[in-house]
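stage 2 :: seqdesign
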């Protein structure tokens, strides 16, 4: 059976994000005070240098209404979404300054509601997302890749949270 998530080392930090050409320096204060950031896919298609997953803007607004401190790492005029026409639900890469199970649970709830409203079943829809975060105890950067059914995402989130809080890793 295929693993639905992987935890691996990451070299993405807030400092490395700030070095990107598309980083909006004029929004530095807001970005640095955010708990989570949506990071664009780079070189996803030949026509665009940076793109966000379809629905990122709507998800961003949903999280903001839930009073979460989240930002998108581009200027409004540079924001572009990619539409993929398959049964997977792709979420833009997320960077956490501090790991937040609340934001992940809200994302899981959002996806669950979107799928149910489409008349489909959560077990039939695949969700893909990369999450980058610094482990608090070790200060080590890690990336969690989730690629599995929507109905397993909530369970996986709990496992990921436990992984981030393990001693000695």
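stage 2 :: out
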């Amino acid at each position: 059976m295929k693993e639905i998530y992987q935890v691996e080392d990451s070299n993405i930090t807030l400092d490395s994000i700030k070095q990107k050409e598309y980083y909006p320096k004029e929004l530095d204060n807001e970005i640095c005070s955010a708990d989570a950031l949506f990071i664009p896919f780079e070189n996803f298609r030949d026509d665009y240098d940076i793109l966000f997953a379809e629905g990122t803007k709507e998800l961003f607004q949903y999280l903001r209404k839930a009073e979460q401190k989240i930002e998108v790492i581009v200027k409004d005029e540079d924001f572009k979404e990619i539409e993929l026409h398959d049964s997977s639900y792709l979420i833009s890469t997320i960077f956490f300054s501090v790991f937040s199970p609340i934001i992940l649970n809200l994302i899981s709830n959002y996806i669950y509601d979107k799928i149910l409203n489409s008349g489909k079943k959560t077990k039939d829809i695949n969700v893909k997302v990369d999450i980058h975060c610094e482990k608090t105890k070790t200060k080590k950067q890690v990336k969690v890749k989730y690629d599995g059914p929507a109905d397993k995402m909530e369970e996986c989130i709990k496992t990921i949270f436990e992984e981030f809080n393990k001693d000695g890793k």
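stage 3 :: structure notes
- Residues 90 and 128 are 5 Å apart (CA to CA).
- Strands lie at 5-9, 36-39, 41-45, 48-53, 70-72, 81-82, 88-90, 93-96, 126-134, 141-149.
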